[in-house]
TrEMBL record:
Domain MPN: 1-127
CDD domains: MPN_like (cd08070)
Span of the signal peptide: none
Keywords on record: Hydrolase, Metal-binding, Metalloprotease, Protease, Zinc
Swiss-Prot/TrEMBL GO biological process terms: proteolysis
Protein name from the UniProt record: Putative metal-dependent protease
GO molecular function: metalloexopeptidase activity; zinc ion binding
InterPro entries documented for this protein: JAB_dom_prok, JAMM/MPN+_dom, MPN, VirAsm_ModProt
Organism: Erythrobacter dokdonensis DSW-74
Superkingdom, taxonomy of origin: Bacteria
Amino acid sequence: MTSQALAAMRAAAAATHPREACGILLGEGGRIISARPTRNVHPTPETRFEIDPQALIDAHRAARAGGLEVVGYFHSHPAGAAAPSATDRAMAAGDGRIWAIIAGGNVTFWRDGEQGFAPLSFARIDS
Ligand SMILES: [Zn+2]
């Protein structure tokens, strides 16, 4: 986790409020290096999010070309808690990627595993 990634997620959440912000977490070896905000293309962005599919395609293509891996996703809860919602649990792929959720300035991290979301500790900030 880098302070840049944290700052980018908080800035995206503030800029899109009261709609949900979303984006892609890039890194290597499961470590988050960068957070890249994308458009939220969901038709009801006040309560839902859908990462711009073209941005995801571009990120995976860049990773295959030797760039940073897609290690996860982030989104904000403009009116909710910094924890996975029922909607998030329904959307989860169980693919082991990291989900970061921003609410009220707090950022929490979760592993989207086969058994559901498990909280992750990212107390250490590498600047
Ligand atoms: Zn959510």
